[in-house]
């Protein structure tokens, strides 16, 4: 009797499951409490609710049809051009045979583009589910504070099916751009450029928050922001450390590069704020913005560059996004769209910058896979090492993601809008959580006392309905 098949390596399997859990923690509770702390206090419950329901909606679709659309056999390889390697054939992976077989991506392993996996298909599916789940949660930051929750329930599975799986197949599942050699180590394009693009389009289609909410939208709880941001940072070790599928030397390099780039980007953003910013002051939220930009920008490059390359990416990406945040946001169309938490900057532009910079800094001395004698079996190179073509591949794949995701997000929302209102009514937007959920994050003391008294008199009590809490005067959003 043996505990597992001979093709399974306990170390690789354990690392992939740990990495997937770290990425999952970035969503719940990471994104839930980060965004929950950033929004107005009347929207805390709604924001956390959208995060938890979005996570659940993606998982159901992922195992029943989406995973194979992103990592399975092509829908029809006889179709011409990019259409022949655009998306996979939908299918379920639940069942003992599918879940316990050796992990396998047909266009990747079938063409010997990487070593065989040493874990099961269920491990691979769960790892990539965590990536699929966090993407709609990221662009939720663009539409918080006004999206109709019923429209959210429809939008997440449709977007995940029709948009995310295409991005994943094109760049990770051995699809058209992967075959051309475009690089996206861990989701700079598949996740962050997609989230920034779709979030911006969704914010434009759904419409802005109430004018008063836009004018007084400072974070309600900075300690919550700090906890969420910290989970995001350390969870990224699983994000970038797990994406080569092996607990080896390249995973370690990717983790170190991730943290190095993030630290540099955070400091660069703070220095920009101190010496050039409007108030000439270092702000905690500015540091968080820099942190997120560093995490996002190194994501497409983490295992392809050296530590020096990671430092340059942190400096350049943080500077680009800081300038966009402070100046591009003042010109059309950016000043016309209410992207509530600035997802188009910290994820969209940061992801695009990271994707282009890996086309410059990818170092052929960084071994991704090895031969048995320890020599390099596969590495890649960027413009600095004579491979100018890599920049064109990065630009082409980015253009595909931006164009496809923008059009599809627009069409999906317009289709949903035929049946369900995309934006909650102004009356609901005035009240916030109490109108949508009959709950609120910070109930007034009088309401709590009333609820306790009612419990002591008559049990059980189904729900507490505290009085609305008056908003404090707020500053503009900062993240």
Task: Give a verbal description of the structure.
- Helix 1 runs antiparallel to helix 10 and helix 11 (249-275) runs parallel beside helix 13 (307-326).
- Mean pLDDT is 92; it is low at 458-479.
- Helices cover 61% and strands 1% of the residues.
- 52% of the residues are buried.
- The chain is globular.
- It is mainly α and 479 residues long.
- It has a two-stranded antiparallel sheet.
- A hairpin with a 5-residue loop joins strand 1 (369-370) and strand 2 (376-378).
- It starts with 9 loop residues before the first helix and ends in a 22-residue tail after the last helix.
How would you sum up this structure in a few lines?
This protein has 479 residues and is mostly helical. It has helices spanning 10-38, 44-71, 96-100, 106-109, 121-143, 149-171, 176-180, 188-206, 211-215, 222-241, 249-275, 284-298, 307-326, 343-361, 389-417, 426-431, 433-436, 445-457; strands at residues 369-370, 376-378. Mean pLDDT is 92; it is low at 458-479.
């Amino acid at each position: 009797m043996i505990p597992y098949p001979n093709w399974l390596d306990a170390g690789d399997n354990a690392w992939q499951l740990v990495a997937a859990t770290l990425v999952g923690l970035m969503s719940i509770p990471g994104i839930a409490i980060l965004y929950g702390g950033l929004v107005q206090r009347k929207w805390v419950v709604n924001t956390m609710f959208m995060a938890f329901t979005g996570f659940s909606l993606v998982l159901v679709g992922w195992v029943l049809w989406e995973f194979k659309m992103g990592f399975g056999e092509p829908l029809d390889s006889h179709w011409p051009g990019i259409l022949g390697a655009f998306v996979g054939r939908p299918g379920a992976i639940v069942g003992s045979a599918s879940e316990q077989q050796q992990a396998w991506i047909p266009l990747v392993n079938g063409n010997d583009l990487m070593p065989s996996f040493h874990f099961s298909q269920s491990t691979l599916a769960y790892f990539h589910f965590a990536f699929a789940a966090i993407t709609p949660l990221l662009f939720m930051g663009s539409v918080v504070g006004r999206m109709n929750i019923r429209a959210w329930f429809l939008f997440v599975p449709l977007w995940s099916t029709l948009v995310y799986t295409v991005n994943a197949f094109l760049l990770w599942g051995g699809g058209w751009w992967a075959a051309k050699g475009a690089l996206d180590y861990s989701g700079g394009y598949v996740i962050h450029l997609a989230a920034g693009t779709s979030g911006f389009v969704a914010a434009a289609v759904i419409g802005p928050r109430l004018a008063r909410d836009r004018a007084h939208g400072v974070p309600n709880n900075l300690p919550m922001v700090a906890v969420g941001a910290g989970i995001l940072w350390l969870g990224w070790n699983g994000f970038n450390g797990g994406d080569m599928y092996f607990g080896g030397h390249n995973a370690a390099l990717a983790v170190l590069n991730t943290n190095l780039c993030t630290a540099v980007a955070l400091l660069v953003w703070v220095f920009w704020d101190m010496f050039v910013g409007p108030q000439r002051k270092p702000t905690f939220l500015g540091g968080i913005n820099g942190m997120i930009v560093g995490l996002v920008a190194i994501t497409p490059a983490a295992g392809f560059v050296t530590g020096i390359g990671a430092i340059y990416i942190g400096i350049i990406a943080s500077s680009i996004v800081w300038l966009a945040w402070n100046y591009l946001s003042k010109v059309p169309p950016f000043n016309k769209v209410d992207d509530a938490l600035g997802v188009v900057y910290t994820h969209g532009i940061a992801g695009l910058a990271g994707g282009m910079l890996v086309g410059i800094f990818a170092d052929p001395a960084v071994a991704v896979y090895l031969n048995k004698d320890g020599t390099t079996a596969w590495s890649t190179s960027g413009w600095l090492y004579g491979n100018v073509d890599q920049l064109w591949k990065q630009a082409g794949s980015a253009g595909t993601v931006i164009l496809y995701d923008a059009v599809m997000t627009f069409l999906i929302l317009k289709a949903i809008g035929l049946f369900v209102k995309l934006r909650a009514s102004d009356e609901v937007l005035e009240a916030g959580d109490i109108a949508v959920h009959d709950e609120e994050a910070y109930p007034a003391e009088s309401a709590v006392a009333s609820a306790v008294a009612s419990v002591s008199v008559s049990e059980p009590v189904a729900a507490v309905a505290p009085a609305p809490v008056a908003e404090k005067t707020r500053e503009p959003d900062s993240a």
